[in-house]
Design goal:
The protein is an alpha/beta fold. The protein has 2 domains: about 200 residues, 2-enoyl-CoA Hydratase, Chain A, domain 1; about 35 residues. The protein has 10 helices and 10 strands.
Length: about 260
């Protein structure tokens, strides 16, 4: 039984599966979900039985509609002391270097990009749509599109940020610009099955090598081109074995042709 109220959580075969479980409000996040995600990311970070994380959503209509505007969230009265939702929701902001795979079905809106933007692999079902309603409601959109602009062309990130509810990006467009790496035919069950298959492949690989790879690549995003060449060199020197005889690979899997 899941110890959380807003999500389902399970660990099996070194795969932690997180299922957003507020379908009655399109899996929007409230303060309870924010707090639970902070606890979940800490658990995933320190539990070495977890090698990879899958994030998915219950219900057929939405991956997440972002913040629950009715329930709201706690805000510090001093804006300079306030916490952004990303501090709770973002895997990388919580120093989780175990690969995160997001499986998106239905609507992925607004604050849902906190998860997508910090995922390592994003796949979706054909009914997935991506949009940011902030400006339609008179709200400034900043952190979500700023992080999104590191994943997709600048113009695409700006268009999502500016047009609000006037436009929604479909699955095929998301695939064509690299927001998702695969569109899985079928419905939610097929999407979840595919996500689990990919997660198991990552979970069988030597975990320190995988986690070090994730951290090195993400760290390089904030570096100059020179630093991105030099500093990540430290990671394989720390993690890789001194000789191939010390290296034990994971099980051999017949590669797919994508």
């Amino acid at each position: 039984m899941s110890p959380y109220e807003t999500v389902l959580f399970d660990v099996s075969d070194h795969v932690a599966t997180i299922t957003l479980n507020r379908p009655e409000v399109l899996n929007a996040f409230d303060q309870r979900m924010l707090d639970e995600f902070a606890a979940i990311w800490k658990r995933c970070r320190v539990d070495d039985d977890v090698h990879v994380v899958v994030l998915r959503a219950a219900g057929g209509r939405a991956f997440s509609a972002g913040v629950d505007r009715k329930a709201g969230r706690e805000r510090h009265p001093n804006p300079w002391s306030a916490d952004d939702p990303g501090f709770f929701l973002g895997a990388k902001q919580n120093r989780v270097w175990k690969p995160l795979l997001c499986a998106v079905n239905g609507m992925c809106a607004g604050g849902a990009f906190y998860w997508v933007n910090e995922a390592d692999v994003v796949i979706c079902s054909p009914d997935a749509t991506f949009f940011d309603p902030h400006t339609t409601y008179g709200m400034l959109s900043a952190l979500e599109p700023a992080a999104l602009a590191r994943r997709v062309p600048f113009g695409e990130a700006m268009r999502i940020a500016l047009f609000g509810l006037d436009e929604r990006m479909g699955a095929e467009r998301a695939y064509s610009i690299g927001l998702v790496s695969e569109v899985v035919p079928g419905g939610v069950e097929e999407l979840w099955t595919r996500a689990h298959t990919l997660a198991l492949r990552l979970a069988t690989k030597p975990p320190l090598a995988v986690q070090g790879t994730v951290k090195a690549v993400w760290d390089s995003l904030s570096m100059s081109p020179h630093a991105a060449r030099e500093i990540p060199l430290i990671y394989p020197q720390l993690t890789n074995p001194t000789s191939q005889t010390d290296f034990t690979p994971g099980p051999r899997i017949e590669p797919e042709i994508r």
